[in-house]
TrEMBL record:
Protein name: Transcriptional regulator
Keywords: DNA-binding, Transcription, Transcription regulation
Family: Belongs to the LysR transcriptional regulatory family.
Source organism of this protein record: Colwellia marinimaniae
Domain HTH lysR-type: 3-60
InterPro entries (UniProt xref): LysR_HTH_N (IPR000847), LysR_subst-bd (IPR005119), WH-like_DNA-bd_sf (IPR036388), WH_DNA-bd_sf (IPR036390)
Amino acid sequence: MSISIKKLQLFEATARLGKLSKAANELALSQSAASQALKELEQSLGYPLFERVGRNLVITENGLKSLPKVRQIADLLASLQLANLNTMSGILRIVASATIATYLLPKLIAKFIKSYPEVVPEIHIGNTQMVIDHLDKGKASIGLIEGPALHKHLKIIPWQDDKLQIFCQPNHPLAKNSTINLEQLQQQSWVLREHGSGTRAIFDAATEQRGVQINLAMELSRQSAIKESVKVGLGLGCLSQLSIAEELKNGGLVALKSPLDLSRRFSLVTHKDSHHNLLTQKFIDYLITASPNK
């Protein structure tokens, strides 16, 4: 049996979408035709690409090793399809951490689309771990993360500098002097991002470096929920300066100077083995050019 482009597209879509039914729908195939095509592809390759666990398909180790090569074929095909067009077009799949997706990406996307109006952005938002997972599984072409990360299949490029800021409500005792020392860091209750987020990783590393043990009152996955919790006195918070700039300006929150090193760097993430299509490479170049650290 031959290995057709359609079968490879089915494999890539199933890995990206997590379900054969969704992949079949994307490629306008019936469920039975998709199932048969995937079976034939596995027979041609000589190894299984997925294992069925309950109702879910889980990609195998051989499947993971093959996926970058299949993506490269798909990207090359997309490049051929765009080669004779005068305009940039297509779906731009991005996955980004919350701070970047909320406070940086909208303006960047708007400017890019103004230059290339036929581009359709598809953006997913999550914490750093989710971004890494989406890139690894081929659910996105470009990732933007806020915290430190290492992955053998991914290329992680420093992009922009950022700094976290500790903050409290205006009537908190610490608000008067707008400072907090090491002893006070341990005395206060904290409302922080969840484990897996880049913000939390930076905060934990900074407190560990200074030997500080904090009292965690709440762990939340939404920046807005953390800010509102701090406003009503549930504890101190620590988020990117970008995410609390408006509240600091209008007096809804107060920044606290601390002895912790809370500087960090946003990073651009792509797959090491992927040959980027024209659109993806264009947006990567645009992001690098737009970085103030360039």
